[in-house]
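Per-record layout

source: Streptomyces malaysiensis
name: HTH deoR-type domain-containing protein
length: 266
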Amino acid sequence: MPRDSELRRQAIVRLATTTGLTNVEELSAQFGVTASTIRRDLAQLEGAGALARTYGGAMALVAHPEASLRQRVGEEFEAKRSIARWAARRIGAGETVLLDAGTTTGALAHELRHGPALTVVTAGMTALQELASADGVTVECLGGHLRPRSQSFIGPLAETALERRTFDRVFLGADGVTAEDGICEADIRQTRLKELMTRRSDRVYLLVHATKIGRRPFHAWAPMPPKWTLVTDDSATDADLDPFRAKGIDVVVTDENGDDISGRRG
């Protein structure tokens, strides 16, 4: 029969494989053991070739594969649509809004096709395709280097274009998000662009379905500004959302109609 230490180490490997990174303090609290015990576990797992040590924790040896945009289109479709419907209602006529690349922001672009007249600036091919023939919507592309995996524009040209504009609102996507570190992506050029987007916008919204909350699958991060809004679907739990609320971040939970049900839960 496996000992407690063996079961704990197996669980640590599963966590690292699921979330991408593990943290000594978090593991210590989760398993009810001391930080030094966790460090010994990590050292043994590293010696066995099960994990790679990092500063303050460990990571899975096999990195999370980044899903392509095409693979992500059908994932959590109803959740993305509900989030997009809520976000579309925030935008007024005549505004200039910035849309990040991604499938949830692509769903938002779809909602804007028959909305009020406005200007949409985007870094994503999905939004461009949705709005290419939309009446009343002026569409601008940041340009730059096209990253095929995410169908997004990144790099110095995109950054230069951002630095010469300001926006009423920005709607961001993410591969993962935590209250402590912000937005997680596969490529540091993506996170650099997202950070610039937040600096140039009056209101910042992060649109993510619940499965991305608390995830840290990669090692590139974009810190968020002091004031921003996390928008997610109704499968998110209070345990998922409380760390964000504790930091004073506005949290919106949407139902299938795109209505905010945050005040009706519990």
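summary: The CA atoms of residues 142 and 158 lie 5 Å apart. The chain has two domains: 4-60, 69-264.
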